[in-house]
Design a protein that fits this description.
Layout lengths: L2 H13 L2 H8 L3 H15 L4 E4 L2 E4 L1 H28 L3 E6 L6 H10 L3 E5 L7 H9 L5 E5 L3 H4 L3 E13 L12 E2 L8 H14 L1 H5 L10 H9 L3 E5 H7 L6 E15 L4 H8 L2
Parallel strand pairs: 3-4, 3-5, 7-8
Antiparallel strand pairs: 1-2, 5-9, 6-8, 6-9
Helix pairs in contact: 1-2, 1-3, 1-4, 2-3
Length: 279
């Protein structure tokens, strides 16, 4: 199996005809048919059903088509990147919510056309792994919350906003009345965030900590409102609580537990610093 076979297969699936696909490849239909037959022999199943009207994908062929299409795109992208790197281009690996910074990203790409931006998927529940990626030059910019481990690992934090934890409950349920706390998953899960939540529970009322439960479920606003009306207490980020707060629910801020958000980079990373200037 090679890239030529995959590309030929995709063209056949698109054209639903060996002759039309062969014309686009500038080869004879018989040569194309041999390529597809060889690919089918290597895979061990038929990709196309042949009939008088042309060809159509089999059920197995349809499944293979989606994977081959992704592979073809990735290979084309890899070739493009390799050619750019051979001409001296740089790669900037980022982990962030890019939709919030679309205009800044576009401006940076226009200003630095020789910089290839790559998006790296990072886990929400293992911040130490993210720090490892940064330290090992496998990641250049990460958007996240501040922890004391950032300085310990020799990284740099660039803050852009700060929020607080708060408790939200109904007027009919004083904060000390029900020793049960639920957490909507509103932020990146990390040891630091959980520590803040436990500290907040202690500051609000020591009874809350006795049965502190973290739920790994994302709630809709209706579900949160109903749950609060049932007497439950939620601890969450202040910014989210104000957007979600149902009528008649007081919000109690815990300013002693601030959470800072920003970008994390390696020190003296000039390209990352220039990138952040555009956000």
């Amino acid at each position: 199996m090679n890239t030529n076979q995959i590309h030929a297969f995709l063209l056949c699936a698109e054209e639903k005809s060996f002759s039309k696909a062969a014309a686009r490849l500038f080869i004879t239909p018989s040569a194309l048919y041999q390529q597809i037959s060889k690919l089918e022999a290597e895979l061990g199943f038929s990709l196309f059903s042949r009939n008088h009207y042309g060809i159509s994908l089999t059920q197995a062929g349809q499944e293979y088509f989606f994977a081959a299409q992704k592979a073809d795109i990735l290979l084309a992208e890899a070739q493009k990147n390799a050619e750019a790197l051979s001409r001296g281009a740089q790669i900037l690996r980022i982990s962030m919510e890019t939709s919030e910074y679309a205009s800044g990203l576009k401006a940076f790409e226009l200003a630095y056309p020789d910089v290839l931006i790559r998006h790296v998927e990072t886990p929400y529940d293992d911040i130490q792994f993210v720090y490892d990626l940064l330290c090992n030059h496998q990641l250049d910019v990460h958007e996240g919350e501040y922890t004391h481990d950032i300085e310990t690992r020799g990284l740099v934090f660039h803050p852009f906003t700060q929020t607080y934890l708060c408790a939200m409950t109904s007027f009919r349920n004083p904060l000390s009345a029900k020793p049960f706390v639920k957490l909507s998953e509103l932020s990146n899960k990390s040891t630091h965030f959980y520590k803040c939540l436990f500290s907040a529970a202690e500051l609000l009322d020591s009874q809350l900590l006795q049965s502190f439960t973290i739920l790994n479920t994302r709630y809709s606003s209706i579900e949160v409102m109903n749950s609060i009306e049932d007497g439950n207490v939620y601890i969450m980020e202040e910014s989210y609580a104000h957007r979600l707060c149902p009528f008649g629910c007081p919000i109690r801020i815990v300013p002693e537990i601030p959470i800072s958000y920003g970008f994390i980079t390696r020190p003296n990373h000039d390209l990352a610093a220039r990138f952040l200037d555009y956000l």
